[in-house]
Amino acid sequence: MLDHQHTTNQKIHFLKQKYTSCQSCKELCESRSQVVFGSGNLNAEILFIGEAPGANEDKNGIPFCGASGQILQDLLQSINYDRNQIFITNTVLCKPPKNRNPKANEIKACNERLNQTIQAINPKIIVTIGNFATKAITKTKVGITKIRGKPIETTINNSSYTIVPVVHPANLLYNGRNPVIFQQMKDDFNIIKKIINKKTKHQK
Predict the structure, then answer these.
(1) Which end of the chain is more exposed for a tag (fewer CB within 10 A), N or C?
(2) Rg of the chain over CA atoms, in angstroms?
(3) What CA–CA distance (Å, rounded) separates 187 from 58?
(4) In angstroms, rounded to a whole number, what is the distance separating the alpha carbons of residues 102 and 112?
(5) Is 46 left (phi over 0), alpha (psi -120 to 50) or beta?
């Protein structure tokens, strides 16, 4: 276990160092103040993948540290988890200008790093937050509202992973914290918890 932890630490440290000064995407390099690599538990059972850093994330260097991050924390608490138990990164590591969506070539440029991060963490489950992360990982073209909470089996670097797409927490903010939407999000997190419990049971 300690050997695995040491190896994971080394891999993530190497990736973080490698991409801290990445110059692949001109617009993103000009827009960012820093590369927001990701943060959390390197032995996490759950790896969360968001879209791209916003202004708060770019300033603090931590994914999901603003209002969306608080909603994510509330959702984690609903299944008795917290931020210290997960690892979270984004589809692209740099803040897009004017909070625009990441472009296809930017997602592609960051894809190898994302796959290597997944391989290093080797989680029991990957949670893709919103359309961009879900499409990047599963290659599906179906909108998030149709596949939210539905497990998808995907192969990444010759390893099989269970993916659970969820609606982005920002969606709750855009909809005035609608309790119906929040309950749907909690239902999806309950599915995540059930899958984790099932995988843990099978490993014993």
Answers:
(1) C
(2) 16
(3) 30
(4) 16
(5) beta
Structural domain harbouring 100: 26-203
- pTM of this structure: 0.94
Contact 44, 85 (CB under 8 A): yes
- What are 88-147's pLDDT values in tens digits? 999 999 999 998 999 999 999 999 999 999 999 999 999 999 999 999 999 988 999 999
Q: Alpha-carbon distance 167 to 169, whole Å?
A: 6
- pLDDT-derived band at 37, boundaries 50, 70, 90: very high
Query: Residues 44-77: pLDDT tens digits?
Result: 999 999 999 999 999 999 999 989 999 999 999 9
CATH code, domain carrying 151: 3.40.470.10
Q: Structurally, how many domains does the chain consist of?
A: 1
In a domain, 47, yes or no: yes
Distances (CA, A) of 200 to 112, 122, 177, 193: 28, 14, 33, 11
Instruction: Give dist(CA 84, CA 65) in Å, integer.
Output: 13
Q: Where are the beta strands (DSSP E) in the chain?
A: 39-40, 46-50, 86-90, 125-129, 152-156, 159-166
